[in-house]
Design goal:
Structural class: alpha/beta
Number of helices: 5
Low-confidence stretches: 10-17, 19-49, 51-72
Helix content: 25-40%
Strand order of the largest sheet: 1-5-4-2-3
Number of strands: 5
Order of helices and strands: EHEHHEEHEH
Shape: globular
Radius of gyration: 46 Å
Distance between the termini: 124 Å
Mean pLDDT: 75
Strand content: 5-15%
């Protein structure tokens, strides 16, 4: 039999000190210790170490403080908004009844009676006839009191005071009376103008397709 050369025996003293692995951990092959790593460049939006306190963030609606500039002339005041216009189709015979129904709906919706002015282009409203029987001064005093719906004839609309809602009953009368009453009613309506009449007659006078 060929002889197997004996493996050289290495004495434990030549292997250097042996370090026993920690309990519960298996011994691993030693790895080279890396040198000092250069600081990584800061990422956009994220500062590198040391990390400062987070900056105060602005919302998109929060504008930066305005820098006072040279003072200029004051901006002109915005013109008053035009009233909303509603047209209730009605014949001359039914315009007064349509106006009365419109007033009832306004009061039922929460409008105060003193916020409503009713103008007639033909025959006067029965309430106006009744109040005028006590004299012109007593009649217009009802308007100044402002605690009830006020009814006025188209011929006297120039004396009527402005109110949030104006209702016009085109219940007849000359065409000149209607043509003169509607523009004045529009200027006296603060929020809403309701016109009860024939659309073919009313729309051209209002200057808008309602």
């Amino acid at each position: 039999m060929p002889l197997i050369p004996e493996e050289p025996q290495i004495h434990e003293s030549a292997q250097g000190p042996r370090v026993a692995p920690a309990a519960g951990r298996t011994a691993q092959t030693p790895r080279p210790v890396p040198g000092p790593r250069p600081a990584a460049p800061a990422r956009p939006g994220r500062p590198g170490p040391p990390r400062p306190a987070p900056p105060v963030q602005r919302t998109s609606r929060e504008a930066a403080p305005a820098v006072p500039g040279p003072s200029g002339p004051a901006a002109p005041a915005a013109p008053a908004a035009a009233p909303q216009i509603q047209l209730i189709p009605a014949s001359a015979e039914g315009a007064l009844d349509a106006a009365e129904e419109a007033v009832d709906l306004l009061l039922d919706s929460g409008r105060a009676p003193g916020e409503v002015l009713v103008i007639t282009t033909g025959a006067q409203h029965p309430w106006a006839e009744h109040e005028l029987s006590f004299g012109d001064s007593a009649y217009w005093a009802q308007q100044d009191t402002g605690d009830d719906v006020f009814y006025a004839d188209a011929a006297a609309v120039s004396r009527a005071a402005s109110r949030p809602v104006v209702v016009v009953a085109v219940n007849g009368g000359p065409a000149s009376a209607v043509a003169g009453a509607l523009p004045q009613a529009r200027t006296r309506a603060g929020e809403l103008l309701i016109v009860c009449g024939e659309p073919q007659q009313v729309e051209p006078l209002l200057g808008t397709g309602v």
